[in-house]
Design a protein that fits this description.
Blueprint (H helix, E strand, L loop, with lengths): L1 H6 L5 H25 L5 H16 L8 H14 L2 H5 L7 H14 L6 H13 L19 H15 L2 H17 L5 H14 L4 H8 L18 H13 L5 H13 L29 H18 L2
Helix pairs in contact: 2-3, 2-14, 3-4, 3-6, 3-14, 6-7, 6-8, 7-8, 8-9, 8-10, 10-11, 10-12, 12-13, 12-14
Length: 309
């Protein structure tokens, strides 16, 4: 670990800024193309694109006129024609994951509560399991399948958009599950740490457990004994920074992202999810791995933006 900390010099702010700018441009292009190719909100294309667009704008980066408003409208349109079904826990093909990510996307974009967010909250209340968790429809790793991912995003959504007199019991059950459940992979560890940070819990053990798994090249891996990649690295950086981690380990992760970004502004990650839908090409880098690569690019840009003073 000492060798790791000494091996990485602090990257010039201009390098981080340039990489973030390229990534933001790539994300805006891909998200706009997605709304032209599909009619349904996607966790991989809207959620992080909205998150980093707002964050980037606050830091002075150029965001295309109307981008945020158009992406919010596209997200809302997925649900607003079937609100009665959504309130009953129906009509959302991606289940708890899609619902929780939609609330995350709208929250990150600064969207106020409305009839759509209220229906999505009701969906989560209906679909919460007896043990307090929010199961996924199917495993599509890394971003779909983890109950920790769903719990972290669902709890944040209930806190942001729920009527607290109605959601307090569900939040308490969700928090109890989260605090006692044991993570089994990187995705679990990342979103457990994010959730514990949001809840104001002591994150020391969870933070140290995630930090110690960093690879010698500065990356993190989705699974033990596999090479690191941009998705695992960026999500780890965001979670660790949120939990108060500072120092050379984070810089090593940032340097890894700077080294692995393509000239297009994207980061490539090979999918390990079995296809459940007919493939379509949105025009993003990565071929059949373009959806996880797009999501990785979103998290990578967020990690870069959050590293800037």
């Amino acid at each position: 670990m000492i060798a790791l900390l000494l091996a990485f010099a602090v990257a010039p702010p201009s390098a981080v800024s340039l990489a973030a700018s390229r990534g933001l441009d790539r994300l805006q292009t891909g998200a706009i193309q997605y709304t032209q190719n599909r009619q349904c909100f996607a966790c991989h294309h809207q959620a992080l694109s909205l998150s980093v667009a707002r964050l980037g704008a606050a830091q002075g980066f150029a965001i295309r006129p109307g981008f945020v408003a158009d992406q919010i409208a596209f997200t809302r349109a997925t649900f607003e024609t079937k609100l009665d079904r959504v309130r009953k826990g129906e009509g959302v093909p991606g289940g708890n994951t899609m619902t929780a990510y939609a609330l995350f996307a709208l929250s990150q974009a600064g969207h106020p509560g409305d009839e759509v967010t209220a229906a999505l909250v009701e969906y989560l209340l209906v679909k919460q399991a007896a043990d307090g968790s929010w199961p996924a429809v199917m495993p599509r790793p890394p971003s779909e399948g983890s109950r920790f991912t769903n719990a972290a995003l669902a709890l944040a959504g209930l806190s942001r958009y729920g009527d607290q007199t109605k959601v307090s019991a569900a939040r308490a059950k969700g928090m109890a599950w989260l605090r006692k459940a044991k993570p089994v992979d990187h995705e679990d560890r990342v979103f457990r740490l994010m959730a514990l940070s949001d809840l104001g819990d002591d994150t020391t053990e969870a933070r140290n457990d995630l930090a110690r798994r960093q690879n010698d090249d500065g990356s993190w891996s989705q699974l033990d004994h596999q090479p690191g990649d941009a998705y695992a690295t960026a999500t780890a950086l965001v979670a660790l920074r949120q939990a108060g981690k500072k120092g050379a380990q984070l810089q090593a992760g940032i340097d890894y992202l700077l080294r692995t970004q393509l000239s297009s502004g994207a980061w490539l990650v090979t999918t390990r999810s079995r296809p459940v839908q007919t493939f379509f090409d949105n025009g993003d880098p990565g071929g059949k791995s373009q959806f996880i690569s797009f999501l990785a690019t979103g998290w990578a840009v967020r990690a870069l933006l959050e590293s800037m003073p």
